[in-house]
Amino acid sequence: MSIAEFNARHENDPVRLHRAPSPLSDERMKEECGLFGIYYPGEDVANLTYFGLYALQHRGQESAGIGVSDGREMRMVKEMGLVSQVFDQESLDELHGHIAVGHTRYSTTGSTKLPNAQPMLFEHPTIGPFLLAHNGNLVNATELRDELLAQGVAFDTTSDTEMLGLLLCRTPGDSLDQVLAAALPRAEGAYCLLFLTRDSMVAARDPLGIRPMVLGRFGDVDAPGGTGYVIASETCALDVVGATFVLDVEPGEIVSIDASGMRSTKIRRTQTKRAMCSFEFIYFARPDSVMMGQSLYEARGNMGRELARESPADADIVITLPDSGTPAAIGFATESGLPFVEGMIKSRYITRTFIQPSQKLRESGIRLKFNPMKHVLDGKRVVLVDDSIVRGNTSRRIVEELRRAGAREVHMRIASPPIMWPCFMGIDIASRNELIAAHNSVEEVGRLLETDSLHYLSIDGLRRAMGQPSGEGFCFACFNGSYPVAVPQGLEGDKLALELPVRAG
Hints:
By secondary structure, this protein is α+β, with helices and mostly antiparallel strands. The chain folds into 2 domains: about 5-15 and about 30-270, Aminohydrolase, N-terminal nucleophile (Ntn) domain (Glutamine Phosphoribosylpyrophosphate, subunit 1, domain 1, 4-Layer Sandwich); about 280-480, Rossmann fold. It contains 18 helices and 23 strands. A 7-stranded antiparallel sheet has the order 3-2-4-1-10-9-11. A hairpin with a 3-residue loop joins strand 5 and strand 6. Helix 2 packs across helix 8, helix 5 (about 140-150) packs across helix 6 (about 160-170) and helix 10 crosses helix 11 (about 325-335). Mean pLDDT is about 85; it is low at about 1-25, about 350-360 and about 490-505.
């Protein structure tokens, strides 16, 4: 299907896939988006892009899309749903080309509906058509949108991605990297961008490096020229398609790849500090990914070891809420000299798309996803290690289930500091009023969760675990309220204030 046919067919589509919340939807922070792009002359790359997006499914589950080019014609397929729901072999066979960009989305600005799905198509007066896929969130999106509205620009979506694409379309330049170098200094906040033109793939990362982006290559990485390049949100996607990691795309860097090779341009920046999101290390990215030269599995194990040194527990066993807290729990158990056991079994068939048809099932949803091992827990003093606590509703239900299964004591250990502030850089964290640690002391949170004890990892311990004792290069704003960019007045208490209004009509 061509892009024109796709737009005509879906112009007035309603929301086509309703998603009920998962049993953990009130507790887990939601990730932003996953990006995957490939430039591989001589190959049809749609299937590789599918595999790359599949590896990045954890970064967004609302919609997925792939755009390709064969050097002359661009085609795109995108839809609401998981990667495996959006694409089948028939749809992938329609996507002929050696250049592709793909996107899997979780909405942070803009609602969950098809017009906000990505990639998005734009037309630049000099460059021609291009597709844009975006991971992150712009804190000055409303300001830029109001400016464009005043210039008579019409919007079709409620996404800051469209706002950014239209800003680029109104920026003069003879090449996409020239346009990006001129326009991106106006964008404030977090962005990793992937672009597809008829004959090139271009990537850009914000000057703070808040979201991750890596470059990989097929073939001999030391050979001149090269057979093909991959740009992705995480290294796990490179592994899946058989590409070799080459480097992290630098903060403030624009990377362009076409028939003449690869070139790099810098975005003008007013400061040189970096602010990688610390939650990429704690929870969001896959543990088999590598960031800033570190294995995330090892970093999370270090968080557990630091936590055991800071807050030991007099207990019999260590368990985790599978699977995100497992590396930290193993690290805690190793440092403590306590056995790590499987105290809860996770159903592999309950996903974020699971439909809970009644309020009663929603209230007991935790049992649908996690089943306590009664013969393991009965009479035991248990240390439950998890990566974070947001609102606390799920944590309280987990403690209740452990006690119901016979646990004599439940000691919670959290492998991150208390989350006290919302995020405005591409992560959907609740408003400050909903964060359980924002207005309660650690002791009060423990009482609310009905634990025998509760301790969090300190920020200093987190820094050590990530291999940066000074904390340099990371953003800890959700723990200490110190944002790497100025947050517009009025946003501090409600992240939803970033939502852009729907155009009337």
